[in-house]
UniProtKB/TrEMBL annotation:
Gene3D superfamilies xref list: 4-hydroxybutyrate coenzyme like domains, Acetyl-CoA hydrolase/transferase C-terminal domain, Glutaconate Coenzyme A-transferase
Enzyme class: transferase
Pathway: Lipid metabolism; butanoate metabolism
Name recorded for this polypeptide: Probable butyrate:acetyl-CoA coenzyme A-transferase
Acetyl-CoA hydrolase/transferase N-terminal domain segment(s): 4-185
Assigned protein family: Belongs to the acetyl-CoA hydrolase/transferase family.
Function: Coenzyme A-transferase that converts butyrate to butyryl-CoA.
Gene Ontology CC, one term: cytoplasm
Residues in Acetyl-CoA hydrolase/transferase C-terminal domain copies: 278-434
Length: 447
């Protein structure tokens, strides 16, 4: 049977495809913008036929119909490896649980059998002339998940960009059990996040750390977007990209001539990433673009790979940092907001990179529900908050008031450095707390 005939022979209706799911199965929905709402809606219609089906996903951007249809969790139990806004809201209603991981290890969970997969449901491009469908904007653990699955169902969607590798960015028609036709709905786009004056102030400090020939990793949010905007308008030259997430600002930097990748030590000339989220500007840029290389996350986020590029500048957000240097970036108290993602991977990898810097960035304050100004630099983390980056790994912390380098510093030196970049109105209270914790020795360095 030739490739075209094999492909066409595997097409079934979406309702027929989801009949393969049985009670107590583990179903994986795929990752980020490549989760299939078409397959989810069909599975939801089978609710009353199924019990105990576990659904796993990675940052699904929409609220699944399976979960809406089953608010008692009698039929479907939903888990997310990295919370989206939709998952966060479901978590608040006790309808979604978080799967903890250090991101670069994710494919190994499937390879070692720690995470079984009965049915993988993915969204792909139509096959090329050689019979390969492409995973589009999300590569990180998709291939490993499909390798582990008993059955693979693929929604074919003409709107999915063909994102070149790299490696493991595609599956052959022969490796997929069923195809269903999608509705060709365009990929969801991230809304534009407003950039505040404080974001720009922090971004200016970050920009001062970047040299010609540096290699960039940017996280998600307004402040990393501000960094990208400023780089695009700068005179920096020959920047490289080795990042977990590719966002619109990389397109702006590339179009401005700032990114060439010619000074990279590995993947020279390539913008390396494991998933992309943004607007159509980004998705159009990625389509069949040989300057970009999609890799699985056990490559992009492996600290031993990250560090092979010199001058790795890794920029990530945080919710709070305590006076010991511990970073909380994924939960506020018991409330799960995001996930560990690649923050730990890149902070560690940047330190191993020759000339590299791992930057944890956060605004110095926030306003609580009572309208009171609170410090994001805290004596101790909010009880229940997850430590995303331990104090032994944390490198640099930046607020709008400056930058603190934490390596090699004692507890009192760390406290002093962090209080120096806290909001001036809140520093005296932090000093009192540090003193009570026996991590304070007043020196001439305090502002």
């Amino acid at each position: 049977m030739d490739i075209r005939s094999e492909y066409e022979s595997k097409f079934v209706s979406v309702d027929e495809a989801v009949k393969v799911v049985r009670s107590d199965d583990v179903v994986h929905y795929g990752e980020f913008m490549m989760a299939s709402h078409v397959l989810d809606e069909a599975l939801a219609k089978r609710k009353d036929e199924l019990n105990g089906v576990v659904i796993n996903t990675v940052c699904c951007p929409f609220t699944p119909q399976t979960i809406i249809s089953d608010p008692e969790r009698s039929h479907f139990i939903y888990n997310d490896w990295h919370f989206s806004g939709a998952s966060r809201k479901l978590h608040d209603k006790n309808l979604c649980n978080y799967i903890s991981l250090t991101y670069h290890e994710a494919p190994s969970f499937f390879d070692r059998g720690y995470v079984p997969v009965d049915v993988a449901m993915i969204k792909v491009t139509p096959p090329d002339k050689h019979g390969y469908v492409n995973f589009g904007t999300s590569n990180s653990m998709t291939h490993a998940m499909c390798d582990a699955a008993r059955i693979v169902i693929a929604e074919v969607n003409d709107a999915v960009p063909r994102c070149l590798g790299g490696s493991r960015e595609a599956l052959h028609v022969s490796e997929i059990d069923y195809f269903v036709q999608g509705d060709n709905r365009p990929l969801l786009q991230l809304p534009k996040v407003p950039i505040s004056d404080i974001d720009r102030t922090i971004a200016k400090i970050v920009l001062e750390q970047i040299e010609d020939g540096a290699c960039l990793q940017l996280g998600i949010g307004a402040m990393p977007n501000a960094v990208g905007e400023m780089i695009a308008q700068s005179d920096l030259k020959n920047l490289g990209v080795h990042t977990e997430m590719l966002v619109d600002s990389f397109v702006d930097m590339y179009d401005a001539g700032r990114i060439t990748g010619v000074r990279k030590q590995i993947d020279k000339g390539k913008m390396v990433y494991t998933f992309a989220m943004g607007t159509n500007k980004l998705y159009d840029f990625l389509n069949n673009n040989s300057s970009c290389a999609s890799y699985p996350v056990d490559y992009t986020n492996d600290p031993d790979i990250i560090c092979q590029n010199d001058k790795m500048i890794c920029v990530n957000n945080a919710l709070e940092v305590d006076l010991y240097g511990q970073v909380a970036s994924e939960s506020s108290g018991m409330r799960q907001i995001s996930g560990t993602g690649g923050q730990l991977d890149f902070i560690y990898g940047s330190y191993k990179s020759k000339g590299g810097k791992g930057l944890i960035c956060l605004t110095s304050t926030y306003v609580d529900k009572e309208g009171k100004l609170q410090s994001r630099i805290k004596p101790v983390l909010t009880p229940g908050s997850t430590v995303t980056v331990p104090r032994s790994i944390n490198y640099y912390v930046i607020t709008e008031y400056g930058m603190a380098m934490l390596k090699g510093k004692s507890t009192w030196q760390r406290a002093e450095a962090l209080i120096n970049i806290a909001h001036p109105d809140l520093r005296e209270e932090l000093i009192k707390e540090a003193d009570a914790q026996k991590i304070w020795v007043r020196s001439s360095k305090i502002s």
